[in-house]
Amino acid sequence: MATRDSWVSNIGFVLAAIGSAAGLGNIWRFPWLTAGNGGSAFLVVYLLIVVGVGVPGLLAEFVLGRRGRQTPIGALRSLTASRWGSALGAFNVVTALVIFSFYSVVGGWILRYMLVSPSGSYFGQPQAYFGTVSHGLQAVAFHLLFLGIVAAIVFFGVSRGIERASKVMLPAVVVLLVGLAVWTATQPGTDAGYAFYLGFDADYLAANFASVLGPAAGQALFTLSLGTGAMLTYASYLEEDVSLPRDTLVIAVSNTFIGVLAGLVVIPLLFSQGIEPGQGGPGALFVALATAFASLPGGAVVATAFFGAVLLAAVTSGINLLETPVGTLVDHFEMPRDRATLLTTLLVAVTGSGLALAGSIFQFVSGTLADLLLTVGLFAFLAIVGWLLREDAVAEFRVGAGRFAPLAEPWLWLVSWVLPVVVLFSLTNTLTSLAG
Ligand code: PFF
């Protein structure tokens, strides 16, 4: 077999993984969920889950990837020495394809908003405009454009495509968001937004802890790209003996920073316009933001910068989702990368277009189904690391871990006992919402 592509540097891997984590989940889903779940109360629970579950979970996926040195099907097959491993890997690949299908549709909306923002042409009727953007043939067209951008990067491979793109795009996202957050702070009427977002309301938290837990757990898993085999895939391209625990911490902290930063832009802006955030589902954020941009001085410029940042963040997540099936075809079926990229892209072109045309299925796939597949995938990863591999997993954790090495045993304990319980809770939560 030809040698596998790999990261040129550890920093390239770290930036690509932060790029994967920081995406629509941070800038679109996170502020919207936060605003709908009591602001700071949600933020606190979410941060706790990121630290307690997200970080050890991400580390588990990295351990599987670097130990397996293959995309999910091959890695899990060799690590479990069982066909069930291949089946799970195939399940992961399907999960990545499902998520990418709706992700690319939303990516298309963002691309469209960014392109029209300089003219501000939607400022007059934000609600009606969102209708045109989000459904029908126009939504299909922009989904295909977004998909084309992502595919062009993946086509060039891990080091020449993904790593190079991440090194430019991720810093650009941060610079744009910092600029926007500073600008937002200068706008009048934002105080209530900051208070809601950053003020700590213990009473609300005590009264609503259980209901905040479910969405906070779901968001923590989604934002760290867990459970799809996508992070496993990225870690499989690591060649050096880098410290996985250190990289995991850097990735999780940076990702959280980007989410909180996005919240510092979105939530105060909505409050400054007297818009009640968090109501009316995911589309409401677009309408509310468009309304806010329309009435702010320099709104067209700010809107362009904002949607530009979201677009870049969405692209760096999309490449991870697309790389998972593409890398699998390359690894497992020894298909040339160009053909693998073309084939997968055509498939997603079809599935995504179907979703763009069918609104009700879109809701189901982007909400419930995505959460369901992620949690099942992550649960299986935890079971493999915590119950099957055990000593091997600890050994892999320790490779290059330096001063983090003593944490390997406590980490394994968390992965074996605590994380599966939280993930099962999250799964039950998804299933109940499905039944309800
Ligand atoms: N973490 C990405 C976000 O928050 O937007 C979404 C994502 C990317 C989920 C890659 C899963 C994945 F495999």
TrEMBL record:
It comes from Halopiger aswanensis. GO terms for cellular component: membrane. This is NSS family neurotransmitter:Na+ symporter. The chain crosses the membrane at residues 7-28, 40-64, 85-115, 135-156, 168-186, 249-271, 283-303, 342-366, 372-389, 410-428. It is found in: Membrane. Its main location: membrane. It is a multi-pass membrane protein. PROSITE patterns: NA_NEUROTRAN_SYMP_3. Keywords: Membrane, Transmembrane, Transmembrane helix, Transport. InterPro entries: Na/ntran_symport, SNS_sf, YocR/YhdH-like. The keyword tRNA processing does not apply. Pfam families: SNF.
